[in-house]
Task: inverse folding
């Protein structure tokens, strides 16, 4: 993996020095063995989304395939902790506005535990209990999770 990165970096450096006439192809991503990918996911089989609070990571799953993850997250701060457990997605709202926290926008909300949701937000700032995702991850979770899907949150 380090060798691939070094080759890519050297190729891009040469391309930038020689101008735009040189095309550089990125190396194909290394395949992660299914057993290794599965071992890294801390949730039980059959869930569609998995959150590990202790490492600020989440996964989006489709059966035995990892659709996304681990992706960075932030979660509930002191007084607003995100509870561990297994939950079902209750509803989605692409343009949700919080009715509890100063009308804060919560784009691409996927609610799974009453008022707790995955949504786009700062992954560097703790939340009021929700799982903040980057913009691209929030869109992917929103597109793939459906009401009734299982979300597991572990410490």
Result:
């Amino acid at each position: 993996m380090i060798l691939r990165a070094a080759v890519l970096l050297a190729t891009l450096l040469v391309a930038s020095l020689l101008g735009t006439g040189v095309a550089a192809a990125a190396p194909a991503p290394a395949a992660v063995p299914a057993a290794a990918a599965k071992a890294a996911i801390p949730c039980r089989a059959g869930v569609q989304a998995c959150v590990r609070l202790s490492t600020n990571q989440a996964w989006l799953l489709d059966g035995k395939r990892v659709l996304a993850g681990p992706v960075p997250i932030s979660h509930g701060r002191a007084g607003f902790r995100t509870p561990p457990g297994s939950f079902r997605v209750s509803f989605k709202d692409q343009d949700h506005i919080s009715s509890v926290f100063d009308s804060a926008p919560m784009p691409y909300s996927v609610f799974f535990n009453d008022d707790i949701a995955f949504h786009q937000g700062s992954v560097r700032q703790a939340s009021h209990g929700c799982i903040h995702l980057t913009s691209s991850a929030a869109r992917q979770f929103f597109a793939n999770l459906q009401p009734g899907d299982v979300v597991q949150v572990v410490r």
